[in-house]
Amino acid sequence: MNKLFLKIFTLTIGFSFLYFPILTLIAYSFNDNKRVMVWKGFSFRWYKELFHNEQILEAFYTSLKIASLSATFATVMGVMIGFSLTRISKIPARPFFIFLSSSPLVMPEIILGLSLLLFFISSNHIIGFPSSKGQLTVLISHITFSVAFVAVIIQSRLSSYDKNIEEAAQDLGTIPNMIFWKVTAPVILPAILSGWLLAFTLSLDDLVVASFTTGPGANTLPIVVFSKVRLGLSPEVNALSAIIMLIVILAAISIYLINRSNIKK
Amino acid sequence: MIKNLKKQNVWFVFTPYLWLVLFFFVPLALIFKISISVSEWGMPPYRDLFSLSENGLEINSTLGNYLFIFSDPFYIRSYLNSLSLAFTSTVLCLLIGYPIAFYVAKSKTNIRNILLIMLIIPFWSSFLLRVYAWKVLLQGSGIINSILIHIGLISEPISMLHNHYAVILGVVYTYLPFMILPLYGYLVKFDLNLIDASNDLGAKPLNTFVKVILPLSLPGIVAGSMLVFIPVVGEYIIPEMLGGSDKLYFGKIIWDEFFVNRDWPIASALAMSGIIILVFPIIIFQLMYAKYNFKNE
Q: What's the pLDDT tens digit per position in A48-97?
């Protein structure tokens, strides 16, 4: 009994700590007062204002575009790295390649952002590319730090899986090209999907690297939100938080339900 | 598969190789170059390392930027502050996260899956907005002050924002899921019968924990600690939103040196020193840990 109490107590305190700030923010998003913390009455006022805020809507669209492109490129290159490191022995300067593909994981984003910005400025001086800072430079930067994360996921999947099944397929007379599509691809597909999702969220969430490498016309959502809340509070941002939480909760629940029905099968 | 890759080897390896050299290695080499350059008015605001003049080739390199940083306690303190913030919050995340991960992992399957989803939701939701939530809560007119006044603990709102305690709170809150999830991953694989076995053999609960549970969850502890420690070392957003001027951190110093003072050589030297002081120890630790694991297997 004592043990059960301790368990329920710990979990209640723990989850309250995780959820209390988020839920408070959602509750106050319905507050009909410009002063965020003084309750005046229930209303959808800030949601209406949010949906008429061109700046936020445009930033949201920019973020989605950069995140999906960056996740796709990063996944393709992450898969290439994963395969190269687990399957190809003759890589020139292999330790250097390992260093390159893993150290973005431990590099503080502020240093990454600074170095990329200085690089873009210099390369603009020398070869005229990129012609200006903007969505392209943010995209390149996001791909660069996401690749390492995808590569780690793919590598761990590939190194834990039994290569014999490929040889078995070969012995059974499968054409080499088909082996990849029929045997290898299905096995690593979950790793590819979770790599893509991780790269997508990393890009969507990034403020620091984007702040360094952005330019005119490339304000991502975190940049706009940060400019609104850096010095004060913003009721529109409260409404935005509530919407994002809703999307995340719905996504989490649907993944839970899909998993459950898969297990039942 | 191996034969099949042979023909495609070249672009399979070299596309990502070239990308990382170009957009990761060259930029790092560039900030190294700028960090040993002399500051100058103009665009770009530093003198070229090599220049041709009447006297022939001139090399304008200097260690002055590094000497400047390491002779000024202001910069040294910011490195120490960042290290101590990362260390404190890693320990706190571990102390808070371990019991949560343990009990979630020990729950019955259907409850466990729901709790796991509840752990993943804050992990997925926007980092910036979770920090902002604490800014709202800790306001003078915020809900925590209101509660404290209501129950009579304080009579007037106290200032809880803009100090380093708010920063620690914000860091622990936002990084807690990064600690819990890897811990959970190892604890869920853990065979509960081992605890019973240890108890049956007469071990006290504390002994069971220290000698059985802890060693088996060590990889989870290391993985979770790395996921917290590494990003917190360079953290910029949380000190900027919740912190004050009582403690300055390395991330904010670089930001200000670049965007406010526009001193590229100093900002670059700070970044290079940051890599040496803050990042190298992490890489060395990881290599040593990998070796230790390899030996034990």
A: 999 999 999 999 999 999 999 999 999 999 999 998 888 887 888 888 99
pLDDT band of residue B52 (cuts 50, 70, 90) is low
More confident residue, B9 or B130: B130
The tokens for B62 are 């200097």
A33, A35, A36, A114: best mutation site toward chain B, by most B Cβ within 10 Å? A114
Residue A30 CA: distances (Å) to CA of A42, A48, A56, A241, B144: 5, 11, 19, 12, 19
Q: How many beta-carbon pairs below 8 A join chains A and B?
A: 229
3-state secondary structure of A162: coil
Residues B223, B143 contacting (CB under 8 angstroms): no
Phi, psi of A217 (to 5 degrees): 80, 10
Contacts of A56 (CB under 8 A, 6+ apart): A50, A221, A224, A225, A236, A240
Structural domains counted in chain B: 1
- Which candidate in B121, B129, B208 is best for mutational testing of the A interface (most A CBs within 10 A)? B129
* Ranges in chain A, pLDDT < 50: none
Cis (ω within 30 of 0) for the bond into B265? no
CATH of the domain at B165: 1.10.3720.10
The confidence score (pLDDT) of residue A195 equals 93
Distance (Å, whole) CA B33 – CA A44: 54
> Under an 8 A CB cutoff, do B271 and A24 touch?
no
Quick check: A48 contacting B, CB < 8 Å?
no
Q: Centre a 10 Å sphere on the Cβ of residue A178 and count the other Cβ atoms it contains.
A: 12
Of A19, A179, A252, the CB nearest to B124: A252
Give per-residue pLDDT as tens, B75-128. 999 999 999 999 999 999 999 999 999 999 988 888 998 999 999 898 888 899
**Which residue is it, tokens 């930067």?**
A141
Q: A36: which DSSP letter? A: T
Chain A hits for B104, Cβ within 8 Å: 11
ipTM of the complex: 0.90
Evaluate whether residue A205 is within a structural domain: yes
List the domain range (segments joined by +) for residue A107: 54-218
To the nearest 10 degrees (0 to 180), the angle between helices A109-127 and B26-35 is 90
Q: In the 3-class helix/strand/coil scheme, how is B282-294 assigned residue by residue? A: HHHHHHHHHHHHH
| Number of domains present in the structure of chain A | 1
Angle A20-A226-B276 from CA coordinates, rounded to 5°: 95
Comparing alpha-carbon positions, the chain B residue that sits nearest to A75 is: B16
Contact between B184 and B113 under an 8 Å Cβ cutoff? The reply is: no
Q: Which domain holds residue B103?
A: 72-262
Residue A2 lies in a domain: no
The dihedral of CA A223, A227, A229, A235: what is its sign? negative
